[in-house]
Amino acid sequence: MEKPLVCITLRGRTVEEMVNDASKAEISEADIVEVRIDHLWTIEEKIRSSNDSGNSEKEEFEVDISQIDFNELDYEEAIENISSSISLPLMFTCRPQSQGGHFPGSEAERMEVLRKAISTKPDWIDLEIEIPKENRDELSQMAGKETKVIASMHPKEGIPHQSEITQDILDAIGSGDVVKACYNIKDKKEALRIFGAALDLASNDANFALMGLGPGGDWTRIHAPILGQHIVFATTESGWHLAQQGRINASDLMTAWELLEYC
Question: Can you spell out the DSSP letters for 183-199?
Answer without folding.
Answer: EE-SSHHHHHHHHHHHH
